[in-house]
Amino acid sequence: MHVDALVPILNVSSLPASFVWFEKLGWPRKWDWSSDGGEPSFGAVGTGGVEIWLCRDGQGGHGPNGTWLAIWTDDVDAVYARCLREDLEVVRPPLDESWGVREMHVKHPDGHVFRISQPVQHHHHDSQDH
């Protein structure tokens, strides 16, 4: 599997407070998103080409300690096929999301969830087409 980037996602109780803390560390806010128009529920801080994503209250508590890693790759469907071939626990098959990525989720035996993503291409084959 070719990997383009690895982005940790940290569960936090307040994104605004976390943005202030990370700003003090020298990691400014890169972006944020609110599902209801109120306080942000998802966002990122970063420096250079590196980001840490922040998630308010775990959005469902991925992983036993909130551990949820985002991995960017060039072919989510190939990773999905490999996971199936290797009998890994896929908890979410590849789907094109409204925010412009194709992603799947696979679970480690200890409960850690890996969110494997790629930018949506103009044309691709759905996993059901294979």
What does this structure look like?
- The protein is of the alpha+beta class and 130 residues long.
- It has one domain: 2,3-Dihydroxybiphenyl 1,2-Dioxygenase, domain 1 (Roll), CATH 3.10.180.10.
- The protein contains 2 helices and 8 strands.
- It has helices at residues 15-25, 76-85, and strands at residues 3-12, 29-33, 42-47, 50-56, 68-73, 89-96, 101-107, 113-119.
- It has an 8-stranded mixed beta sheet with strand order 2-3-4-1-5-8-7-6, with helices on one face.
- The two termini are 19 Å apart.
- The model has no long low-confidence stretch (mean pLDDT 83).
Tags for this model:
alpha+beta, 2,3-Dihydroxybiphenyl 1,2-Dioxygenase, domain 1
Report helical residue fraction.
10-25%
The low-confidence runs, each spanning 5 or more residues with pLDDT under 50, are none
What structural category characterises the helix and strand content? alpha+beta
Quantity of strands, as a count? 8
What is the number of independent domains?
Answer: 1
Radius of gyration, whole Å: 16 Å
CATH class: Alpha Beta
Summarize the structure.
The protein is an alpha+beta fold. The chain has helices at residues 15-25, 76-85; strands spanning 3-12, 29-33, 42-47, 50-56, 68-73, 89-96, 101-107, 113-119.
Write the layout of secondary structure elements.
Blueprint: E1 3-12, H1 15-25, E2 29-33, E3 42-47, E4 50-56, E5 68-73, H2 76-85, E6 89-96, E7 101-107, E8 113-119
Parallel strand pairs: 1-4, 5-8
Antiparallel strand pairs: 1-5, 2-3, 3-4, 6-7, 7-8
